[in-house]
């Protein structure tokens, strides 16, 4: 059973997450979090040693949120190709993300690249898990006979995941989902060439 203290801590993390995702770690102040969670400073520091500890827990929450959202979407499809198409469908509107502010993986990666090795390591683990997931789906498709054996699952998984992540940012900068729709169309066309 979850204690009151654990519930309060989780509530603070959930209220802080969209702010961190939109403003970044450096751009989010403790006052932003206090206001969003409607808690006193003493309450916040009762659950988190400092802003770095809060940032670390929020990063875990954000990364888990995106991972579980993708997992839920692809688990509904029965075939490997269906799972990839479900992921592409999930990604088609970069303005509708599980947490406001875009993809947490990309946002955290950019911000932590040079100045936050702890967060960078968390993002690295998330990227590696995503690559492994898509690679295993594609390999499953090859094994089941959906895809030709000429499909390089590891390479296509990197292309799929990294191009979607990068295009999310481009779409948000140009304020249009057209680049994503173009990318998805291209990825689908390429993958269809490997269908048996």
Explained architecture:
The chain has 196 residues and is an all-alpha fold. The protein contains nine helices and no strands. It has helices spanning 4-27, 30-37, 41-47, 51-75, 80-91, 104-112, 117-144, 153-174, 178-192. Helix 1 (4-27) packs across helix 6 (104-112). The protein is elongated, with a radius of gyration of 19 Å. The termini are far apart.
Give, in order, the helices and strands.
HHHHHHHHH
Distinct helical segment count: 9
Main sheet properties: none
Extended strand count: 0
Structural class designation: mainly alpha
In whole angstroms, the N-to-C terminal distance is: 50 Å
What number is the mean pLDDT?
A: 93
What is the 3D form? elongated
Tell me the strand percentage band.
under 5%
As residue ranges, the low-confidence spans are: none
| Rg over alpha carbons | 19 Å
The helix content, as a percent range, equals over 70%
Sequence-ordered SSE layout with sheet pairings:
Elements: H1 4-27, H2 30-37, H3 41-47, H4 51-75, H5 80-91, H6 104-112, H7 117-144, H8 153-174, H9 178-192
Helix pairs in contact: 1-2, 1-4, 1-6, 4-5, 4-7, 5-7, 6-7, 7-8, 8-9
């Amino acid at each position: 059973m979850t204690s009151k203290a654990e519930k309060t801590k989780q509530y603070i993390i959930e209220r802080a997450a969209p702010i961190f995702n939109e403003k970044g770690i450096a751009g989010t102040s403790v006052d932003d979090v206090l206001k969003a969670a409607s808690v006193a400073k003493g309450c916040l520091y009762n659950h988190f040693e400092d802003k770095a500890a809060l940032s670390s827990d929020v990063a875990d929450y954000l990364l888990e949120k995106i991972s579980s959202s993708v997992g839920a979407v692809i688990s509904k499809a029965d075939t490997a190709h269906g799972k990839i198409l479900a992921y592409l469908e999930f990604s088609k509107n970069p303005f509708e993300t599980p947490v406001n502010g875009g993809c947490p993986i990309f946002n955290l990666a950019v911000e932590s690249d040079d100045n936050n090795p702890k967060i960078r390591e968390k993002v690295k683990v998330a990227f590696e898990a995503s690559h492994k997931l898509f690679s295993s789906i594609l390999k499953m498709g090859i094994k089941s006979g959906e895809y030709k054996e000429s499909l390089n699952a590891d390479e296509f998984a990197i292309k799929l995941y990294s191009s979607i992540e990068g295009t999310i940012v481009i779409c948000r900068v140009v304020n249009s989902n057209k680049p994503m729709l173009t990318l998805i169309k291209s990825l689908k066309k390429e993958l269809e060439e490997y269908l048996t």
